[in-house]
Amino acid sequence: MAKITFITADNEEVIVEGTQGSVMELAVQNNIKGIDGDCGGVCSCATCHVHVNESDFEKVGEPSEIEADMLELEDEVSEYSRLCCQIKVSDAIDGITLKVIEE
Amino acid sequence: MNKSALPDPFEQARLDKGFGEMNDQNDPVKILLRLKDVRKSAKNWKAFQSGGEEVGRIVVPSEVHIRDTRQIPFEVDPPQHASYRNLVEPWFKRPLEKEYQDKLKAIVETVIEGALKEDVIEVVEEFSLVIQSRALTVLLNTPFSESKTWIDWGTHVFRSEESALDGDKANILYDYIDNEIDRAAANPTDDLYSKLLASEIDGRKLTKEEVKGVMILTFAGGRDTVINTITNTIAYFAEHPESLKRIKENPEITNTAIEELIRYFAPLTHMGRVVTKDTEVCEHAIEAQSRVSLCWASANRDAKTFENPNDVVIDRQINPHVSFGFGTHNCLGATHARTLMKIILGVLVNKVTTIDILDHEDNIEDLDQFKRKVGFHVLKVKFNA
To answer: What is the CATH number of the domain that holds A38?
Structure first.
């Protein structure tokens, strides 16, 4: 199981728990503001952009080339940016904090 | 086994130069073909404008001579774009609600059950147009009976047999919308017209002209595109019954299957922009005030990003297609379209085992340098339970 903290664009902190699927799906199930996941998780819509907390980035890892190409064009992209539909929920990411970019 | 295939006519030009050229009513268009260029240009709304002075110019073929009403929010750029988009966005997210989905499901079930009883169905007119029109009553929250009028218009609101652009046919739609706006102004209901008429933007009421702009966009943007998507879906499953079976047995792949079909079909081939300053794409100079188009259909087959781009891989996991556009002006109706597809697939896998194609006539778009099959003029099939 993984416990994940989302910080929304208006600075609300929401802690959720999950065991499977993607972080985007977990966020949508928990109505996290700013994570829409329009394309259902195929890395097409870029409506699940987050900044991973710097100290957690190693747990999550670098984006794939295709994801990086998408991120490159996003507003407010940073070196800790990820599209969270591409992050799998697992024990490995337990305790991470994600800052949601969209309002 | 290739009637459902939509070949990629752009490959060679995409590899060689990265763009193609089309003359459209003496207002030429440079067609951008590579995924990265298309996405980058779609994001750069300042240099690649949608909201210029000449209303209708970004559409290819250009509607400058047949339309004066600005489509909203589509032909408005930031920062004004956000006010309009934020206003209409919640309405166009209603497809996520269960009540909305139940209505769509009832519509789709009725049409598919009816089709199963027939020896032959012409999919474009008797199936796709019917589902599209009835589903639009749910999106607009108008009476179901309105769909009869829209079905009677035929498959092309803007087009006739003779011409890709037909001012007289377009006027049928514009006059209809004017009448509906007047009707809603006199007797408001819970429909989209009434909702828009009662809305405020930047501290003032929307004008009738602005309401008309949203309604034209909704009617025009979601008609041929949805009809082609549904028709191509039926053709695909007719030739790939194993995919229908696989989705039935593994419903968790429904989402990747829908996104993949939408990537492959690219129901809108391309959309134009007006270049605001001298710029360069693919090392090619593009002059200020000229037109480019962003070719979603070509970008979706770019082998630099998509493995086996010309195959339909229904469990494709990473699928950064641009069938709904990209960036600021991405498709407002995408949630409706995706939801409708989810429901159609759900009903198909439960009620239909095989589909036989009996007759077909391809619908091929003429982009001068490229001829692209976008769907069918005629597709006669037999649905089998």
So the answer is: 3.10.20.30
Q: Does A42 touch chain B (CB under 8 A)?
A: yes
ipTM confidence: 0.95
B259 and A40 Cβ atoms separated by less than 8 Å: yes
* 3 state SS for B314-358: CCCCCCCCCCCCCHHHCCCCHHHHHHHHHHHHHHHHHHCCEEEEE
B239-278 per-position pLDDT tens digit: 999 999 999 999 999 999 999 999 999 999 999 999 999 9
Q: What is the CATH number of domain B11-384?
A: 1.10.630.10
B40 with A73: Cβ contact below 8 A: yes
User: Smallest Cα–Cα separation from B213: which of B73, B57, B53, B30?
Assistant: B73
- Split into its structural domains, chain A has a count of 1
Show which of residues 298-317 on chain B sit within 8 Å of chain A, judged by CB atoms.
305, 316-317
Query: Which among B39, B318, B335 has the least Cβ separation from residue A42?
Result: B318
DSSP, collapsed to helix, strand or coil, labels residue B244 as helix
B41 touches chain A (CB under 8 A): no
